[in-house]
Specification:
Blueprint lengths: L4 E7 L2 E7 L2 H19 L5 E5 L12 H7 L6 H13 L23 H4 L1
Parallel strand pairs: 2-3
Antiparallel strand pairs: 1-2
């Protein structure tokens, strides 16, 4: 049971999302990341997604850079830098803004009876 992952790159060509893993879960993650980017950076920022791997509907890893370089440059360097800073400031890929640091309160261990007394 493989896990799906999404990688993100920001350049003058816009935001490039690379999905890897089982098709269904990778496509869901790509779609949610695309929504996240549009919500944070704005709908005018171009987002391109690639599903990595071998087979139909997938792009081999060796072809990704060549495919990405074919994309037209649609932003200035300053705009690309601003988009990158906004995305990293908003939690980037983790999207765990509401999750506090430290022990997860939902997985706290129950105290032993001897320590309670």
């Amino acid at each position: 049971d493989k896990a799906a992952m999404v990688f993100r790159g920001v350049s003058r060509r816009g935001v490039v999302l690379l999905g890897e893993g089982p098709k269904g879960s990778a496509q869901r993650m790509l779609a949610s990341q695309e929504k996240f980017v549009h919500r944070i950076a704005g709908p005018e920022v171009p987002v391109t997604t690639y599903l990595l791997g071998e087979g139909e509907d997938r792009t081999p890893m060796t072809d990704v850079i060549r495919e990405a370089k074919k994309l037209p440059k649609q932003m200035t360097d300053a705009e690309a830098e601003a988009v990158h800073k906004r995305l990293t400031a908003m939690g980037g890929m983790a999207q765990q803004a509401g999750m506090p640091k430290g022990i997860d309160p939902r997985r706290a261990r129950t105290a032993k009876r001897s320590t309670i007394r």
